[in-house]
Structures are given as structure tokens and as C-alpha cells.
Amino acid sequence: MTNHQSKIEKLIAEICPDGVEFKELGELGNLYGGLTGKSKDDFSNGNAKFITYMNIFSNIAVDTDVNIFVKMEPNEKQNRIQFSDVLFTGSSETPNECGMSSVLTKKTDEPLYLNSFCFGFRFHDTNLLLPEFSKYLFRDEQMRKQIAKTASGVTRFNVSKKRFVKILIPLPPLPIQEEIVKILDNFTELEAELEAELEARNKQYEYYYLKLLTFDASIGQKKLNEVVDFRNGKGHEKHIDENGNYIVVNSRFVSKGGKVKKYSVNQISPVFKNDILMVMSDLPNGKALAKCFYVNEDDKYTLNQRICALSVKNKDDLDSKFFYYVLNRNKQLLRYNNGVDQTNLRKDDILKIQISIPPIKEQKKIVSILDKFDALVNNISIGLPAELKAHKQQYEYYKGKLLTFKEKTLIKK
């Protein structure tokens, strides 16, 4: 890292000792929207590749190796994604997750089309920033702070295009961009190796997860409405105070495993120890739908309207943690996700699914095994997850340093 950093410092001293120029996005290119006028049927028998919301949200570089298609008619007027375009998600539950970026870094002759919940940015001069540099720049913390300020809303936040085009970006010379890309690519390659190893461990966990939770016909089944009580959350975002005492449980909370800030709210939907909290609403092909969170401690939680709480009626017959493992991303609920529209699970959808309930002693044994596997793949304090976390922190630190530039002062004539 030191040798590369020294080379960058030397390049900056030689090429731009007075700093680099910053410009507003609106001066450098144009925004364009995603698909318009499409129905559900257009996504069931498509002929052109379609870049989804989650593709952009999850990848700094667009994944073009996808099998999601949309039907396009000959000469249909829709915006096509081009090489070096920067794509952004248009909305999220929090302003900090709005405007997540992904860059098309590969040249392709295939037509690519964009999700209607997203928008793209195209530079007038595509040689101004290397696409490989753009993918890091627009995900950098400093840029993310600017983007977050362009979002507004109450229960859902949306990017204001008028404010978005005012975002300032640095324009370092290409040799400096190239050297920064080399360093950050090395970081991401090592991260990819660690993630591949963790993924292999996850697959092993999933194998045993399915094996342990698959029961023969002799094990009786019951509908959820027979064994649990259901409580829905409430809308309370208008009352949020970042210095408050209550943890607001939304889909982001569940996806992050509960690692979020505490807030104060005036409208309370209480949560209790041993409750199972579940996401009832998610975007197309999202990974939060039906995801669960197990409340294993007494804390001040409150649910938003997209989350429900389920409490076991008789803990002598059904172990709460066992029920959590059975319910988490249950296939009976995931079938409601059609991959096109936002999915909203109803109370009746949830309570009519059936689960197998083995003897309580067997339930507790299964929980003990799955808890150990879960710690191996998810506990960031030990082993591979801890190593991956430390690497990511180092990457973010150096990325921040490398993408911080002195702004050149332009002399007015």
C-alpha cells in the first residue's frame, strides 16, 4: 500500500500540485430514467436483459451476467444503458441508503434496460472518468453523504433529481485514477476471496439447516394461527429523534441483524423477549421479504408498519428459537414474491402457513446445532467473519484517503 500511495502522491505533485477541479454533475452529463409503460407480462417472457434494483444496490459494478429479461418491441423507445453509465437506486426506507450506485464497467453489444425504480447518469465526455474509478468514487463515504442529502420523505425516501445534479465530484487526471483503481482492486480481490470462503461455509450451514428442519410425515403439522399470536407494527417515522431511547425495527434493522442506531418515537408498538420479528414488505427480488429477527434480550424496540411480531402461545410445545429457524425466509411465504412488483405479505398469508412441530426435546437439540453454525458464519467477533470485517474497515479507510482531493482554486479573470 505504501509504495502505491507514494506513487500517487508523486503523481499529484507532478500533474496537479494545486489540486484537482471539482464540478457539479449537471455540468458533466445528463440523468435518464428507467423503463416506462411495462406490465407484469412483459417480465415473464422477455427478450432483453434487465438490470434490477438489487443488482445496482448490491454491486459497485453492474452484473451483466443475469437471466432476468424484459419484453421489448422492435423500435420501442426506451433508455438503454451504455458503457461507463452510472446507475442509481431512486428510493429506500432511509436517506442513507438512497442513490446507491453501480457502474457499467464492461463493454457489451447486448441491449440493457433499467429498473423503473432507478435512474442513470451519462457523462457528456466518457473519457473524463474511468468507469473503474467511478465505481469506487460514487460509493465513497464523502460522495454518499452528498447523495443522502438529496433524498427526502417520511416512510420512504426518494432522491430529488434537482438536488442530485448539484452534487460536486472531483476530476483527477487519468494517471492518478488508474493508480487508485489498482490499489482498490487489490483490496476488493482479497475481499472476494474471503467472501468466497465464507460463502462455502454458508452453503454447508444451509445444507444442515434444511436437513435438520426436514421432517417425515409422522411429525404433526399445525397452522401458525394455532401456535402463535400476531402483532403488526405502526407508522411512527414522523416522530423519530436520533437521540432517543427506542430502536425502530424496519426491514433495514432485520437485514442488518439488529445493528442500528436507537431512536425515540412517540407512537410505540412494543416488542418482547423471545418475539420473532418478520419483514412483511420488500422490493422485487429483494432479500428481506420474510426475513426474521429473534429478540433474545429485553430492549426497547418498536415496530414500523412493515414489520410484524409473532409470539409463541405455548413454549412447552414450541420453542421460540426453533420457530424462528423454521419461519426465517420460509418458502411458503417467498412464493408471494413475483420478482416484478413490491411484495406485501398480509396477516392471513402468514398465519395460514403450516409447520412441523417435533417433540420439544428434539427442537432444542436442533436449535443448539444451528446456533453453533450461525455463530461460525455470522458472528463478526470470531474467525472468518471477524477477518472479513477488519479487511473491510481497512479498505474503507484507504478508500477514503485515496479519494480525498484538494480542490483547485480557479482564478477568475
Please provide a written account of the structure.
The chain is α+β, with helices and mostly antiparallel strands. The chain has 3 domains: 1-20 and 173-215 and 364-408; 22-171, Adenine-n6-DNA-methyltransferase TaqI, Chain A, domain 2 (Alpha-Beta Complex); 216-357, Alpha-Beta Complex (Adenine-n6-DNA-methyltransferase TaqI, Chain A, domain 2), CATH 3.90.220.20. It has 14 helices and 23 strands. A 4-stranded antiparallel β-sheet has the order 2-9-5-7. The protein starts with a helix and ends in an 11-residue tail after the last helix. The model has no long low-confidence stretch (mean pLDDT 88).
CATH class of the largest domain: Alpha Beta
Form type: globular
Q: Could you describe the largest sheet, including whether it forms a barrel?
A: 4 strands, antiparallel
The CATH fourth-level homologous superfamily of the largest domain: DNA methylase specificity domains
The low-confidence runs, each spanning 5 or more residues with pLDDT under 50, are: none
Q: Output mean pLDDT.
A: 88
State the CATH topology of the largest domain: Adenine-n6-DNA-methyltransferase TaqI, Chain A, domain 2
Count all strands and give the number. 23
Query: In percent, how helical is the residue content?
Result: 25-40%
Under the CATH scheme, the architecture of the largest domain is Alpha-Beta Complex
